[in-house]
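Work Package 3 (structural annotation) set out to generate three-dimensional models for the target panel prioritized at the project kickoff. During this period the team completed the workflow that converts sequence records into discrete structure tokens, so that structures can be stored uniformly alongside our sequence database. As a representative example, we reproduce one entry of 360 residues exactly as it appears in the project archive.
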Amino acid sequence: MKIKDWQIAAFNEKLKKTQILPMFFLRRFLNAMFDQNGFLRCDNIQPLLVFEDEKNICHYLPIKRIVSGYVQTTDLKLYCLPGLERYTKKFKFSDGKLVISHSTPYEQQKIQVFSVTGRTHIVNEDSYLGISHPNNPNLKLLVVADGMGGHDFGNLASKFLVNQLKNWFLNEKIANLNNTKFVYENLSTIIRHINDVMHREFAIKRGLNSGSTLALALINSTDTIIANVGDSRIGALMDGNLNIISIDDSPLVTNTRPPTPMEQDMIRVMPGNNFITQYMGNISVRPHLNVIKNSNYTDIFLFSDGITDCVNYNTLNQIARNVDKVTLFKFITAASYGQDDEGAKAKASDDETVVHYSKR
């Protein structure tokens, strides 16, 4: 959207005051508020895009990023501001170009996230991520991390893991993320490095017995690279059926092949066998990696085990085949309260999280 008459304002969080900035001060203000890639880096002051629409209604929109002659607001909409470029020469593209088209084929792609706290939990120990890259909407990162170690620690561990992965995704070169061979060959190293950082931060520095599972899907132009540690599962809807494409770290499943649906259900319901053999934050990890072509699926699901411990595989498959927002919400609610007649109810009190990506 092109805005001919615009201004930039600053909202001071502490003073609860908004001030329109004079143009002679704009360059200095923007240089102080945004980093070299145009991302907002100040917490106390929120820059605002100010303009009047055709109905003379004045809008104050929070700005997330500013590059060249464009600003991106917090709702991810882009606005072209004639004359802005003279004040933003210092801001550089980190890699590639900021996509400004409003008619890309990615418009129909949707990321949905649903997460509920288990009935017996004080806080939700699951953390999650579902984002498109700000410089290329064709690149997406989906993450589900199920924290372990009690509500005081599991929540911290899963959030730490998600933030580490988000920082890597946003700072890695666009060309590398779009190179499936590069991602596949380097992702294990990246995950192991983050695991080492987590182990030092929680186990060594804080003396905490905490950690997190990991389910990750990185979607680029042609492929989807998945990685998992623990028992948070990843499913892909292929030819109308949900296929589990991750590998459980469980005594019932070997590391040489994905589990069958029957094995999935056995892991869920057999007493004493539903535990994981590795997790993020331990001394060392060996992540499982896989690659599938984007053309081979319509939907990707990342589940925490609060879902897959409560909902039978056949039920998951049926829901995935007919998925929409309402169905997903009902599905999570059913898992949360153990209302799935076919599934086990022993762990219905756990946190439940789904990150869902659809190309439909």
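The chain has two domains: 7-87, 105-358.
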